[in-house]
Amino acid sequence: MAKPATIRDVSERAGVSIAVVSRVLNPGSGPVAPDTKLRVQQAIGELSYRPRTAARELKSPGTTTLGLMLADVANPFFARLADKIVWEARARGVNVLLMTTQEDQHLEEECLNTLYERRVAGVIATPTSTNRAAWEKLDDLNTRVVFVDRTIEGVDFADSVGIDNDLSARRATAHLVSLGHTRIGFVSGPTTTSTGRARTEGYRQTLREHGLDVDESLIRHIPFRGDQGSDAVNALLSLPQRPTALIIANTAQVIPSLRRLAFSGLSIPEDLSVIVFDDDPWTELFTPALSIIKQPTEMLAAHSIELALNTAGERGRTNLLVQAEFIERGSTAPPRGSTPPRD
Amino acid sequence: MAKPATIRDVSERAGVSIAVVSRVLNPGSGPVAPDTKLRVQQAIGELSYRPRTAARELKSPGTTTLGLMLADVANPFFARLADKIVWEARARGVNVLLMTTQEDQHLEEECLNTLYERRVAGVIATPTSTNRAAWEKLDDLNTRVVFVDRTIEGVDFADSVGIDNDLSARRATAHLVSLGHTRIGFVSGPTTTSTGRARTEGYRQTLREHGLDVDESLIRHIPFRGDQGSDAVNALLSLPQRPTALIIANTAQVIPSLRRLAFSGLSIPEDLSVIVFDDDPWTELFTPALSIIKQPTEMLAAHSIELALNTAGERGRTNLLVQAEFIERGSTAPPRGSTPPRD
DNA sequence: TTGTACGCGTTATCAG
DNA sequence: CTGATAACGCGTACAA
Fold this sequence. Notes:
2 copies of one chain form a homodimer. Chain A is an alpha/beta fold. Helices cover 42% and strands 16% of the residues of chain A. Chain A is elongated and about 90 Å long. Chains A and B meet through α4, α5, β2, α6 and α11 of A and α4, α5, β2, α6 and α11 of B. β2 (95-100) of chain A pairs antiparallel with β2 (95-100) of chain B.
């Protein structure tokens, strides 16, 4: 009920001017006599005074807030990312404004505008669309923009941090090929996304390098949101020559895909080898334990923060690719016998 | 590089005063001639002007920001909650400041101070400790405080939203009893938490109502963070008379617990029936599909927001308990044979 | 219908 | 070492 104390209240109580109080509040901004300082601190304590952030921000051009714009926090991968980022940010004394785009261009633009209005110090985002104008305004503000996990083209002032998608897909594919698989289904993200494209490319390349044909009907590009993983798996399993192995390179679709697999009656890995891009702990609890591509969430978070809060250096100059680990568990094995599946 | 336009720049370009621009920006705050309005809007467009949030907040006592203080966003339950809350908040034009306490009193206090300084409109939190002084300062600000999922005592001005923990535990326990189980292990949260206590109480009551003894050695209270679920399960299985059923009422410990179970060689549900408090999609993919207590995340989120943004009504008057659903799947069955386990 | 002038809480400048 | 005062960008009485 009582109005919060202002810097003026403190100054009066301590019998000094507001300037002195400010200097006590921001050490290093000017000299203060030891005993004066003590009086001020006491007054601050008694009034339980706290400087108002809004007023502070009004003066200085920047803020101590970071924008975190993710596609979807319900996705455990993004959730872990958010957790780490919030943690790292806190350690640096900055707060995180969380927004979700739900993979929607329109929402994304709205978020970008809000972030602009709030003059956030930096933005860490999983971009959904090339919203040139909106992104550019942030650049005008000198705001650091860091793309994490994905990238978009046409925004050249943004730094980026992600995993080596191409290499990750290569590893997964090569592993299956080395086991003897020749028909490998591949479920990936939309071709409009950098991750969707890079992973598919790694897959294609690896097959070619091993002298195998690339059967386009084995590749499925599906959205991150929704349940299309189920349909995609269904389609793959209904192929005249069904695949003997499957790579689910769309993390958001792992669960729907596996749900469909469970209904198929196929046993893993005897009938079908499976590798998923997902390092959620439950993948180890699945029967059989799933072979995975594990994304180093902490690394992604740490690098993102570093770039987003780094005032030095040119913007858009850094494009980090951290390696994802392939962990072999029980869901991958040589194809059944050496006879191809009947058609 | 170019400094962002201010309201003054717009007024000059449109050949009007800043007051008029402000009125165009905040419709309803005063009359504006149609053609003037048009000129102003055009100027705004040309300069791509956006009012600065910090300056806005300085005037009005409140803000359009909501504080979301969760224990841990890496926990999928909280992640889904955050996702929904961010979504609902956006729909109401408010932004969400995300913070995590990691179940740490000290961090919690730090967060509360930050939220105070920022004059957030409301706070939705999973409280960790009774930090009377810090919570009270928010109350002085007239800030709505809503506890979600958990509650603490001594903060009587806070509203709360959670599931009916007592009833949920009763349902789970009753189900197992009705199947014929008499020795039911119970893994719950710390006794210092409202959820930990309520769930355990529901369990105890139900056993008593059915004329069964409450064997305290079957009850394990473990922290939310860490991997103690593994040890707890280990201890329960090592009991002279091991339980024939297990309720894991500590969502954060479900995975560690199940991991330990997987090593035990026990088959579910033949050797051990299992019910978990967790509605993550993977619980359905587990073999066998897990019987669960499903928390209605969307409801929790919707109610929380409603309370946190509701300026009307007395604070601390509302304590919502939404029902959690028991979903029977494949992990529960009558105990093996009718003979009690040998001792 | 429009413009002027002030206040919001803080920090920075510059004179004492 | 300290104090008065001018910004910062926006909203809003109040005057024109």
